[in-house]
Amino acid sequence: MRHAACYTLGGMIIAQISDTHIDPDSPYGAERVRNLERCVDDINRLDPLPDAVIHTGDLVHNGNAAKYRVAARILGALKCPLHVAAGNRDDRAAIRSIFAAGRDLLPDTPFVQYSVDAYPVRLIALDTLSETTNMGDFCDIRGDGLRAALAEDGAKPTALFMHHPPFEIRESQYRWQYDSQDAIDRMRRALEGQGHVIRGFCGHAHRIAAGKIAEVPVTSTPSVAIDLRLGAFPDEVQSAPLYQIHRFDARRGFVSELRAAP
After folding, report:
1. pLDDT value at position 93?
2. The whole model's pTM is what?
């Protein structure tokens, strides 16, 4: 086991999976199940194991109980802790009830926004779901909750994970993936001056993309579901589900690697 030594050095490894869109009713349903199983198997073979796995949303496609049972069965085989952010195709209540979260930052609201303080890097899951569209939103309640959480500890390195990327993606059909620029501005204002926020991780775009919000580097990762993946990739990984490994140490910050699951 690597964890104790890694914590002494202030290091951490995160595996990020996203947009698995588990849906047994889809013509691609069996393939998507296998895509996720391949990623889980590959993560479990890593040496050292990641400290945590983050799923940045759209765990299932238009969530219902049967779909979440399939996803939970597969993800239950992970040998390291899993933390899930809600995507626009997810059901917030199901995410809350099935998957382990951290400290709820917005109790008595429907939002799935929480903090996990068990690692060298604090993880904060943000809720970017819109009530009216499949695009993103970030209201005053969520912005105030994020601001208050960040104010609690300004020394510990912090990473955010969420579904919708809060930056422009020029290659995408939807260059801005929120209902309005106001929503992105609310997130930006909550992050201004928060120098301990060092990285953001997103899904939703189904492609590799990178940008910044309030000077925080933010990236999106390809969909694990191969049939939904966007962007150009080498021929040798066209039939492989992709996920990312993010390695942190106090000297370099995060260094990321795209990984193909065999």
Report:
1. 94
2. 0.94
